[in-house]
Amino acid sequence: MGAVSEIFKKNIRQYGMIIALIFISVFFQILTDGILLKPLNVTNLILQNSYILVLAIGMVLVIITGHIDLSVGSVAAFIGALSAIMMVDMQMNPVLAVILSLLMGALVGAWQGFWVAYIKIPAFIVTLAGMLLFRGLTMIVLNGQSIAPFPKSFQKISSGFIPDLSGGSSLNVLTLIVGVVLSLLVVYQEFRNRKISVKYGFEQSSVWLSVAKAAALVIVINLFTMVLAQYNGIPNILVILLVLIVIYSFVMNHMTMGRHIYALGGNEKAASLSGVKTKRVTFWVFVNMGVLAALSGLVFAARLNSATPKAGTNFELDAIAACFIGGASASGGIGTVVGAIIGGLVMGVMNNGMSLVGLGVDWQQGIKGLVLLLAVGFDIYNKSKTA
């Protein structure tokens, strides 16, 4: 039990949010008489929060470096508007339009990253200016009106599903197979990590704890895929999200770039003296945020099947809240991609659950604000205890 307690203390924010997510899900499942976790609603939860989760992945990198980006909602709206001009008005091929939209997002990120990294203007000011600038440009591009509809192939980004193998079964067989494959990968990875720890003499937990952890993950994965299999299977956007989570988690945990981002957020001067090119790292973090903001805008436009002047409103606040609730530190240097996703899911389940029980928007906003305040307060409390 001592080992379990030690592991929990070292990962208290991440494990605490996982427990909170489970508790909130069970709580609203009871309050909604089982509606929350019905297959249709679970699928809707994924679709409704996908663009916020995409933003949270980029935002957590920005926050780890000790910065903030207030412009992502406006950038998402701007890119959605440009994609509508290209696909609807100009009848451009959707694939080419998506590529150009992501490149435009990279240019927007480079523009803001230049001012932050090289001119040394605080990110809060630069991105606040960007929020106003790109919201204004969105209005200009759309001329204050919505543009619709998008091509069917583009809409499938947000509303499409991976085709099933069975073709007519009540359960989506491909989804169940994916669940089994993912379970095998989780078990393999858990014991591969343990083997590497033994090889290099790293400190490790007991065998039964590794088995329990793998078993818990396997159960969650298969329950999740079973629920999805009872509706239309795996949404296309879920595949995109999983790919992003895997890539960014690998970069942050196993690549030099990830270590440099953590070092920059932990202590910029020390990182610079250690050979980290801090300006370049900051610049590319904002370029990356621009690309993911563009992707979020495309996902939202595809789901709405329309580019509107009001798109992206409060996206930046939801993404920032997801990162802080998921364990990122306001002072930088701390945070994980998986934690940001968990924080985003906590927000999403709360939004959906409160809507299902009939709480008004005013109460929803107040409760979300309180949760965010408590999450950051919890972070500060933990730091004071370990100082």
UniProtKB/TrEMBL annotation:
<feature type="transmembrane region" description="Helical">
    <location>
        <begin position="165"/>
        <end position="188"/>
    </location>
</feature>
<keyword id="KW-0812">Transmembrane</keyword>
<feature type="transmembrane region" description="Helical">
    <location>
        <begin position="12"/>
        <end position="31"/>
    </location>
</feature>
<dbReference type="InterPro" id="IPR001851">
    <property type="entry name" value="ABC_transp_permease"/>
</dbReference>
<dbReference type="GO" id="GO:0005886">
    <property type="term" value="C:plasma membrane"/>
</dbReference>
<keyword id="KW-0472">Membrane</keyword>
<dbReference type="GO" id="GO:0022857">
    <property type="term" value="F:transmembrane transporter activity"/>
</dbReference>
<dbReference type="Pfam" id="PF02653">
    <property type="entry name" value="BPD_transp_2"/>
</dbReference>
<feature type="transmembrane region" description="Helical">
    <location>
        <begin position="121"/>
        <end position="144"/>
    </location>
</feature>
<feature type="transmembrane region" description="Helical">
    <location>
        <begin position="51"/>
        <end position="82"/>
    </location>
</feature>
<keyword id="KW-0813">Transport</keyword>
<feature type="transmembrane region" description="Helical">
    <location>
        <begin position="236"/>
        <end position="255"/>
    </location>
</feature>
<comment type="function">
    <text>Part of the binding-protein-dependent transport system for D-xylose. Probably responsible for the translocation of the substrate across the membrane.</text>
</comment>
<feature type="transmembrane region" description="Helical">
    <location>
        <begin position="208"/>
        <end position="229"/>
    </location>
</feature>
<feature type="transmembrane region" description="Helical">
    <location>
        <begin position="283"/>
        <end position="305"/>
    </location>
</feature>
<protein>
    <recommendedName>
        <fullName>Xylose transport system permease protein XylH</fullName>
    </recommendedName>
</protein>
<keyword id="KW-1133">Transmembrane helix</keyword>
<feature type="transmembrane region" description="Helical">
    <location>
        <begin position="94"/>
        <end position="115"/>
    </location>
</feature>
<keyword id="KW-1003">Cell membrane</keyword>
<keyword id="KW-0997">Cell inner membrane</keyword>
<keyword id="KW-0762">Sugar transport</keyword>
<feature type="transmembrane region" description="Helical">
    <location>
        <begin position="317"/>
        <end position="343"/>
    </location>
</feature>
